[in-house]
Amino acid sequence: MIRYLLRRVGQAVIVLWGVSIAVFSIMHLVPGDPVRLALGTRFNQETYDALVARAGLDDPIVVQYVNWLGNALTGDLGVSFRSGRPVTELILERLPATMSLAFGAIVVALLIALPLGLVSALRPRSAVDYVATFISQAGISIPDFWLAIVAILLFSLTLGWMPSSGYVALTEDPVEWARHLVLPSVVVGTVSGAILTRFVRSSALEALGQDYTRTARAKGLPQRVVINRHVLRNALVPVITVTGIQLAYLLSGVVVVEVVFAWQGLGQLALQAVETRDYPLLQGAVLLFALFFLVVNLVVDLLYALVDPRIAHR
Amino acid sequence: MAPSDQSVDPVLAVEDLTVRIATRRGPAHVVNGVSWSVGAGETLAVVGESGSGKSVSVLSLLGLVPRPPATVTGTATFDGQDLIALPEEALQKVRGPGIGMVFQDPMTSLNPVLTVGRQLTEGMEVHLGYDRGRAQERAVELLDLVGIPSPRERLRAYPHHLSGGMRQRVMIAIALSCDPTVLVADEATTALDVTIQAQIVELIGDLQRELGMAVVWITHDLGVVAGIADRVAVMYAGRIVEEAAVDALYASPQHPYTRGLLASLPVLGAAGGRRSDLAVIPGLPPDPVHLPPGCPFHPRCPVRGDARCADQVPPLRPVGATAGIPHRVATFYDPDATADPARIEDGSP
Amino acid sequence: MTSTADETAGMGSAPVEAGTVAAPDDTAGLRGLLRVVVRNRLAAVAVVVLALFVVVAVLGERLAPYGRNEVSSEDKLQAPSLDHLFGTDQLGRDVFSRVLIGAEPSLRVGLVAVSIALVGGVVFGLVAGFYRGWIDDLIMRVMDVLFAFPAILLAIAILAIRGRGSTNAMIAIGIVYTPIFARVTRASVLSVREEVFVRAARSIGAGDLRIMARHVLPNVAAPVIVQTSVSLAFAILSEAALSFIGLGTQPPEPSWGRMLADGRGFIQDAWWIAVFPGLAIFAVVFSFNVLGDALRDALDPRQRSAIESASAGQ
Known about the structure:
The complex is a heterotrimer.
Chain A: H1 2-29, H2 34-39, H3 45-55, H4 61-73, H5 87-122, H6 127-141, H7 144-158, H8 174-208, H9 211-218, H10 223-253, H11 255-260, H12 266-275, H13 279-307, H14 309-313
Helix pairs in contact in A: 1-13, 5-6, 5-8, 5-10, 5-13, 6-8, 7-8, 8-10, 9-10, 10-13, 12-13
Chain B: E1 10-23, E2 26-39, E3 43-47, H1 54-59, E4 70-78, E5 81-82, H2 88-94, E6 99-102, H3 106-109, H4 116-127, H5 132-145, H6 151-154, H7 164-176, E7 182-186, H8 194-211, E8 214-219, H9 222-228, E9 231-236, E10 239-245, H10 246-251, H11 256-263, E11 317-322, E12 325-329, H12 335-338
Parallel strand pairs in B: 3-8, 3-9, 6-7, 7-8
Antiparallel strand pairs in B: 1-2, 1-4, 4-5, 9-10, 10-12, 11-12
Chain C: H1 29-39, H2 41-63, H3 95-131, H4 133-147, H5 151-162, H6 166-193, H7 196-203, H8 208-244, H9 256-264, H10 272-299, H11 306-311
């Protein structure tokens, strides 16, 4: 078990190192002078020099990388070209919004997927099953930003039930936080839920068809026990993995939905960074996203190993 | 078809069982009018190749073949009840305390995420009303009974910690946990190494002597049958084509299919030192969706001794008896009378 | 819609004895594909939609009743009518025509991007799987690094370096989807590599390239074809998303994503501007996904489905 843990963590570290190099190169692969590009028409020799010095762009590239990496490890992701504020600070400001959305979406997704997927598996080829299958296939095909627009149109502008945009911090006003969270969570959660439904269904079907399920029935155990104790435990294991991966993706990838909802999250921040050529900010944001993704994936793998005793035994 | 007359009262009597399964290509006639019975302390072997319907015939008794798509008719009398007519809740009470099953692949038949102990105790908790502690004590006893060393430690083990032979012993322990009247072993040794196979066969034999239950062995392995069965029923394409006491079957098989099966067993130093090829029954078993009219073995039969073989299904008719166990075969003709010595490679002297 | 594995769901693997005898697997191979499409009405609809899509993309301008930028100040913001099937936008342009014309960039970017991913991925996967050793490790670590970024984010980062526009979007999306092709290819190669015939070919001195071409490639074809359809779906979705946030196809080139962005501001007064392009995106992406699933059932049932790929964040 320990060996497996170490191996996985080791892999993750190597990939993370690769990621750091890739992220670091963003600024340096840009054709032209990144600082000049960032300042654009507001170019001013003083500011230019100050930014270059702060970002250490005078040094040889390897030194730059080492410095950047070293700083990043201590939490210093540089200074924004645009605002002059520390990148880390900017990111931390936006983090709660993104996390709220990610978790809200996962909750919605599970609320949709677990019942729908399970019932589907228990009654294959029934009406529920066909509906669930259709929803799954449709769900991954729907552009989430379009769904967001339609949802805002329907629920916010036409029906007036929900606010149409914006994020309110939990600490500021819990009720408003929840109210503003509903629509974006439902939009993002529906897409994730569609994916998960299919997965829950196929996972449950597979477990139902296994020999051990047959053995459980042959023992005369009541259906309820067979499902809860034998089938679910096996079926949910891969579902945990997928949910985790979804969560990782949600923490990092819902850029476009954030734009539609004017959701002051990390995704929107990254986009702004691209538009304003604020490379340190972009690098910081991308690095963090990748880190999230990797860490959540790693945690999921380890959880999987804990729950399924066979994995660690290899 | 009346159940066979025998010296022992049957504890499980199957009569005219048919199982039809709806498939995309049409209904598959998997079991076609099968009858057998087994008594306490007796071992019946149901023999046949894959696709003969032998497993389905037994699984359908316990309601383990989902219907739909299966349709099951016939009667299976157990403990005064007809299993086939029983609703699911009542069947649940029979599975375990009435009839215990051991399946083919112990690797996949045990739940990988539950401990061995849990899988042993749950049946007892449900059927015998034991609390956890008592069930665990009994579980230890059972593991010991099936020959697993350090049984108490094993309770906490997971299936993947055990070898194939051990797992199968656990399966047997589970099957026995509620003191069943009948133990069914469905290809219980097929997935194991040869040496382990012998151990398991012997184990079940010993357990039967100790506990007195009836045992039904479903297998395609004639070697296993010779070792432990009292009576044998040979199945082909969903029908019983021959049934007899085990010695009678090996000594004088009457059905061409049985003869073919026995002849195909490799025998060391056979036929006077001449190295002969393995005898093989040419052709394949019929597709259950498109069964031939008449005798199902007819297309492959080397004898075809009667004009009726092609269009009528021959009924089982008695051809003798051994110690009160009748020998029956489903042919219209007498194979010995019409046998062409050059065509049937008959290994018997 | 449900896979063939679901047939015996519910109670253990017992009844399949009936199937072990003569029944051929009638869903395999190209003939099987036709059979699947015919039997599966949804797949048939998908094929029709896709055919339509290709025709529209190729013939766009000629099919459209109005010009791509034909403005008309009297006809601003008209609701759908016989004259203007999808209504008009804020500049009086016919939305229906623009949707038709917008098909071309979507198809073009999708095709080119997936071609890049396919060629790159298959080559990497072949080399990695065939030669194993350090080259395999190296290639797959690089792929892992790419995988560590959520798709949209990686595309955005690449566009940040290269600048916006449909050409760069093609490259970006192509890079984003290369790893999945590499993995799929490599997995196929690994499964075939140890096959007797490959070893036999080796033993009679057949050159590596020859072995790869004659023995390995055909086995790789099936999963790659399936992956292509699925990736086309996501590539088109990605292109739309990138255009939506302004990084992809640039005006005056019409593009569904851009139209959505434009229409968003008018959503309350003229919902048709945003809704119809979104429906178009959905229809095409959905069809590619359905086709991918049908192809998978016909060619390679063991591979993971479009939905399973989506659930892994790809």
